[in-house]
Amino acid sequence: MKDSSIIIVDDNKSILTALELLLCGKCRKVKTLASPNSLLHELGKTNYDLLLLDMNYSAGINTGNEGIYWLKRVLDKYPSLSVIMITAYGGIELAVKAVRMGAADFVTKPWENAKMLQVIESACRVSAGRKRAKGDVSVKSKSADSKDEVFEGESDSWKKVLQIISKVAITDANVLLTGENGTGKEVVAKKIHQLSARKQNSMVMVDMGAIVEGLFESELFGHKKGAFTDAKNDRIGKIEEANEGTLFLDEIGNMPLPMQAKLLTVLQSRTVTRLGENDPRPVNIRLISATNGELPKMVDNGNFREDLLYRINTIHIEIPPLRQRKADIPGFVNYFLLKYTEKYHKTGLTISDSAMELLLSYNWPGNVRELQHAIEKAVILSDQEKIQPADFMFREIESKKSMNQFNGTLEQMEKSLIEEAIMRHQGNMTSVAMQLGITRQTLYNKIKKYDL
């Protein structure tokens, strides 16, 4: 810890002062920022080992979404950096989500100094280990050398998707990926980039559902110093950052209509104009978009531009849900089992036949992501040589039992599962979404769909 450089971002000056005093003499360097707007610029100048990041910055807003947004941006560019989230007690659920996204840990306000130092020291050790392993201190963006791979699979439906990917990747055609939450749209997008002629350049990913309202334009198009109150430096937007590479817009259905019009202009003119400037800049990007919503229905409802849909939909790839590709489940199980037995130092742990039967019989409403989380939990909970059905959380076992007794349609089954989850968690929608392995927005869409 003594050789570590630490950067702290919090809009509360008292918090910054308290942490500076706590860390004084215990580490090599401490840098404080009252706003995250210049965070990426600062990280680009100095090789930091640890970031302490507050969850909220805007007055009157305590959702924690700002912290999640900046966490994703930081880890996209600097995956070796350890991040500790700072949150009020009421934001613990969101802080847990942040840990799942890649944060090293979280600390609640007010904290105990001894506990804070312990968490910081542990995170610094992790960061140092990552850098030694990689022999590098930073990665500017996720690009063609990403280690994420598309599982080959055994099912016919997945093999068809892989065939389409191989044909489309070598072109520069815009691609729209659709499918339920958790089916692997981001992984497919990475695979397309890795097989393309642009693979030596950056693949820039933007989660449109995570961008704070009011930051869409600056995030995508960039801004000039002085363009608005907090614009203290010129900033390149994600579109420019993806020049000569691939731009991946996840959850594009969340893009506001005014931004849709601006994006359409960029795609038509192949230029981008930063906020506060008048001169357009040429850009050459390959666009991949993804959504778990139904864009044609959004067009009919006036929530999505029809001309933009045509522009992004040159090639449409529908990612099948896991329940339609159950032949792939054993391969996924073995892949995730290897990953998490190594992570949690439980090498040699295997899965029993009865546990595999349980996984094959389950409907997986959260798709591959839910399966991944289920295997991770089972590895953590198991204290035997083989994972048993009891090592999976009761939700999976209970859902299997209810599905065996259910004779309705898939939609009726899904509605029933959501109703059961809402009752179990007494209307706590964050807990319901986490249990079902879907986002809150997807949950709200389904609640509206089923009139719950």
Describe the overall structure.
The chain has 3 domains: 5-134, Response regulator (Rossmann fold, 3-Layer(aba) Sandwich); 156-320, P-loop containing nucleotide triphosphate hydrolases (Rossmann fold, 3-Layer(aba) Sandwich), CATH 3.40.50.300; 327-449, Orthogonal Bundle (Helicase, Ruva Protein, domain 3), CATH 1.10.8. Helix 6 crosses helix 7 and helix 13 (329-343) packs across helix 15. It has helices spanning 13-23, 39-45, 65-77, 92-101, 113-134, 156-169, 185-194, 216-221, 238-241, 257-269, 295-300, 306-312, 329-343, 353-361, 367-381, 394-404, 410-424, 429-436, 440-449; strands spanning 5-9, 29-33, 50-54, 82-88, 105-109, 175-178, 203-207, 246-250, 271-272, 281-282, 286-291, 315-318, 350-351, 386-387. The chain has 19 helices and 14 strands. By secondary structure, the protein is α/β, with parallel strands linked by helices. It has a 5-stranded parallel sheet, sandwiched between helices. It has a 5-stranded parallel sheet with strand order 7-8-11-6-12. Helices cover 46% and strands 13% of the residues. Keywords: ATP-binding, DNA-binding, Nucleotide-binding, Phosphoprotein, Transcription, Transcription regulation. GO terms for molecular function: ATP binding; sequence-specific DNA binding.
For the sheet with most strands, the description reads: 5 strands, parallel
Low-confidence stretches: 135-148, 394-403
User: Can you tell me the number of structural domains?
Assistant: 3
CATH topology of the largest domain: Rossmann fold
Percentage of residues in helical conformation: 40-55%
What share of the residues does DSSP label as strand, in percent?
A: 5-15%
What is the averaged pLDDT score? 82
